[in-house]
Amino acid sequence: MASTNPARGTRDFLPADVRKREYVIGIIKEVYESYGFEPLETPAFENLETLTGKYGEEGGQLMFKILKRGEKLDISSASKVADLADLALRYDLTVPLARVIADNRNELPKFFKRYQIQPVWRADRPARGRYREFYQCDADQIGSSSELVEVELITAAAKIFDRLGFKDYVFRVNDRRRLSEMVTAASIDAALESDAMVALDKLDKVGKGGVLKELAERGITSDAAERFLAFALDADSAPRSESLSKIIDLLPMDIAVKDDPSLARGLSYYTGMIVEVNVPDLPGSLAGGGRYDGLIGMFGKEQIPACGISLGLERILVVMDERGMFPPEIADSTPADVLVTIWNEETTPESLRLAAELRASGLRVTVYPEADKLGKQMKYADSIKVPFVCVLGESEIEAGTATLKNMRTGGQTAAERGKIGQLIKEELSANS
Amino acid sequence: MASTNPARGTRDFLPADVRKREYVIGIIKEVYESYGFEPLETPAFENLETLTGKYGEEGGQLMFKILKRGEKLDISSASKVADLADLALRYDLTVPLARVIADNRNELPKFFKRYQIQPVWRADRPARGRYREFYQCDADQIGSSSELVEVELITAAAKIFDRLGFKDYVFRVNDRRRLSEMVTAASIDAALESDAMVALDKLDKVGKGGVLKELAERGITSDAAERFLAFALDADSAPRSESLSKIIDLLPMDIAVKDDPSLARGLSYYTGMIVEVNVPDLPGSLAGGGRYDGLIGMFGKEQIPACGISLGLERILVVMDERGMFPPEIADSTPADVLVTIWNEETTPESLRLAAELRASGLRVTVYPEADKLGKQMKYADSIKVPFVCVLGESEIEAGTATLKNMRTGGQTAAERGKIGQLIKEELSANS
């Protein structure tokens, strides 16, 4: 007998979970659309070569690779992964976007604004809030290097957090170019720049001491390391970034923004502004992003500027669940508005007709699947928390009525068939 | 330079494609919900053992398998696929559902009705309308062997096709138990039953002669084969199925149903009624399904009856595209309702405020990302087919107005800032 567990690090989403996910995704889509972003979807897997070398060393390790098929698979002469795998699961939504842009440059508008809400897969060690299958909700704008792009992306993301009910989020912003200047100003060898960034990126996790230790291990003198860290911890002493100042100035006053020279971000493809969104009760970030003006050029002849932000659906859901941020109609959703009972075999067609009538009036209607004792049908209705039950027996059919039971109040009324839908809708909206 | 193509047999969906897909998915969800089905989602990949042996020989060949990772992968001592792969991409939505039911039996209601709209992956040879990544839109009801389940599933699917605008679909129904009786009545050896089904399943593709030839190749005498095919081609001569008669009697009169003893269906897990939905201009089916009372028992201790239907999104889209069945707001969708221009650096904050005002009134607003010549901004607005442009220069800002240009009529008016949103909404709704 096979195991009934989902694969390690993945989850099944039962109806209550899906409704919460769809509520959040619905708001994200609505806001992205209101900012003129258009939907894009890409395949779950890409040719291995499309993803290889885009995410740094760790990315290569954590990618799920797909076994070659049929004659292409020659196990006996295989000596390395590339002999065995030709495809890999999507690792993020940015690299597939860059490929799509390069592939469709002539069909897409000069400034292309797309959003994409799809799962990505990483073979990371599963932990609390860290899964091997998780959704990213990205918005990116292609084709302009103007700071207005960053401003609109941050404003849209802030609007999403507002709409979801977050009040304590902060956008931390920095600039990769400024980080380079900090490296120079601290007299760190230019060859060690990426080492300095990798070490700084761990500040939240390992603290100041940890970063200094790693900087030392990576061959940076303690004087230079101290200077670099001093810049990172004090926005006033760090080199200024005109681009960043412009972005901060243009952002609406009511968005909490922190100029944070310690923000580094892990991915290697960023070239300008970088951003992360934090709330106090979550280690790690709710969203992150930045400008990546070099990535699309890796797929096409043309260098095309681009900038994007990515919202982490799973982390947003974790915080919203812990804080009880879902509206009641989502938190207490029911499988249907009303259950129609089945009296016996002869009355079944009439019960099906009643269900059709109630659906036509806009209700979600489930029909008990078998002729059975009324008590059992009521017990089932109770177990699925359906707010109304419609009983249709021979006497009701003859009278052109049905008995409507309100499962919350226990109240019961005989009502004309044609008026039941309206009755249920009124009581439902009075209750909400 | 890496290739910019998506992987073989997969597709990128640009905005116009996504909007069509979401329109169809939206209707499918709405109807499934109105019948009391609840949403479920499962991971893209399953443990290999979960899927192995559930789909017959072909299924095993066409499954995308995922390479083991890290220390688990030992290429040098691998001699077969099971040494190299531990996971596989979802091949359909039914087997994952059966696993979820067995895994959550105590948390789920006695009669569990779920829908699931997710992609599945098969390494089939790509052809017109046949992809390696494609969406299935399934509804299944678990826990009852009553024919009412089949009736509600077929009625819900018919409602979906109605809502999408199909008028010429036919539900072909048959019963696996009746096919067994046909095998017996034709004096075919019981041991050759599944051979007879496999051969009959190809009737649409290879015709009568082809089926007779394959029946002969599979060791069935020509007399028996002729009798078997005669039953398959004439519902009146074929053995009766009481269960099927009951289903057909209970279905609403306005659903076109054909009792078709030649319908066999490929998958091996069906045990009772089977169904397919056809339209004249598409080889193959728009939907298919059936009863599978034995599958869940393969994962748990308990045998639990189940029945489901699966709509093929890609085929529905192919037919709707060819027939021009999309409503104009989907077929001619635009990335935004209005574009706000940028006059110069000084006026930019005011343009952003105007965009925020228009969004607050419910419009989808895109902002030109750079201060540039007005002619270039207009040209861009034209290229993305946005219906309105809002020009905000220094004089407009001073006067508290903006210039609104209707890109379809070419008409231009100066309007009070506070009234522009309403103005655009009125013209948009007058146009639709």
Question: How would you describe this structure to a colleague?
Answer:
- With 432 residues, chain A is of the alpha+beta class.
- Chain A has 3 domains: 15-41 and 90-325, Bira Bifunctional Protein, Domain 2 (BirA Bifunctional Protein, domain 2, 2-Layer Sandwich); 45-89, no CATH class; 334-431, 3-Layer(aba) Sandwich (Rossmann fold), CATH 3.40.50.
- The first copy, chain A, is 40% helix and 19% strand.
- Chain A contains 17 helices and 16 strands.
- The first copy, chain A, has an 8-stranded mixed beta sheet with strand order 1-5-6-11-10-9-7-8. In chain A, strands 13-12-14-15-16 form a 5-stranded mixed beta sheet.
- In chain A, helix 1 (15-34) packs antiparallel against helix 6, helix 6 packs across helix 11 and helix 7 packs across helix 10 (222-233).
- The longest helix of chain A has 20 residues, at 15-34.
- The radius of gyration of chain A is 28 Å and the shape is elongated.
- At the A-B interface, helix 1, strand 1, strand 2, strand 3 and helix 4 of A face helix 1, strand 1, strand 2, strand 3 and helix 4 of B.
